[in-house]
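Subject: for your reference before the review

Hello V.,

The reviewers asked for a structural picture of the protein, and I figured it would be easier to keep everything in one thread rather than splitting it across files. Below is the amino acid sequence we used in the manuscript, unchanged from the supplementary table.
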Amino acid sequence: MVLPCLYTHTHTHTSAPPFSLFFCSRSSRSKPGHSHGQPQRTSTFKDCKEISTSPQSSRMFNESQVGLGLENLGATCYINSTLQALFHIPSFYNLLVNDSKHQLCENECLVCAMRKTLAHCQTKSGVAFQPDLIYNKLKLIAPQLSLNRQEDSQEFLMHLIQGMHESYLKANKLNFYPEETTPINQLFGFEICIEKACPSCLHVSTTYEHHTELSLAIHHHDSLDKALKAFFQKDLLQEYTCQNCGEKVEATMQSLVNKPPNVLQLQLKRFALDGTKLRKLVHKVLVPQQLELGKYFPSSSPADYKLVSAIIHHGPSIGQGHYTCIGSTSDGVFYEFNDEKVSRASPRPDLFSEAYVVLYERTRPGNPKPIHGDGPQGASYSKDKRTHLNTKGDDGWETVTGRYKDRKPSISQQQLSLTSSNLKNAEILLPNNEVNGSFSAKFTNL
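And here is what came back from the structure prediction:
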């Protein structure tokens, strides 16, 4: 049963979001410092005069060209696998190849670099190459990551998507609901509605968060369907202070997807903090090639998805091992991308059972009506911290979800306030004398 949304909070809105260093360069004929009366923002890349915000159908995803392999500098498999996973999303491919405005850029922006790297991948030379345009921008995409050590591919993917989003955002001077106005967020962005219901006064507190991916705890689950069901189940929140009646109660909390994405990015939390040790969860998780999400979040439009690519982590720990990608052509044939080597994947039921990140594309993309409307004035909007990772004072939290194995899960507000500066993409396993199951948390600080 879906709880009703009551718009009782103040709708806060900032006039301009923070920007990072990902912007296209104007033509040399543009006057430096020209900002239409606004303070000039300084960055390595300035904005383009014009960027297409809607891909055309002049050139489409071509199943006959699988794509070339990418050379590994020694520890760059996390970048290579991420690029291949993105390049095998048809809508992402079409966006890049049809964005002709970026051909006019004089200094390479991040979108230009991705576009040219994809074009090189699609040549028929048959020779693997180094994606230097992306390697050279790593310090701009994610300053904390390195070309010389094993890094987290999902973290790189998160920063790469954010960087491309900011490039479009700056170029089009968008400042109103920016998460929904760039091509990148039209593909990956979606809205989560978090409802907390007070059993005493029946007041329902509703908060909206913008996301580009879901992180799923898999410690107690052997299938993606079970992990999704656990993510969207209703939980109990202990010692919750109701904003309406002021009482401390055991409230119910549930997350719902308000606007389904066109490209669904799911991270399977393969790394768990067990006491003080970070260990990898190596058990197989059944990942279906077709996903129907209507049963997980009600919507007025169908939400059917097709698996198009996945990132696989091989090895014992997050700091050791190797990343590969499995990507699909539009006719449904899967290929494995292992750095320089590209080979056809043998079809088998457990092909994706060790996946770390899976990417689904909506089979009937569109702009569905939100299940709770567009959030009229009075609703509470909470920006996902993944959208502003460089903001000062960020405590490192992206999402906090309580998912328990027992039938009556409960989370205290004290547990929800946990912070860490040393963990990322980890699932916390609390002792059995504290809870029966696992408390899942996502960290981003290194």
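For the response letter, the relevant points are probably these. Confidence is low (pLDDT under 50) at residues 1-60, 367-424, 430-446. The two ends are 39 Å apart (CA to CA).

Happy to draft the paragraph if you're swamped.

O.
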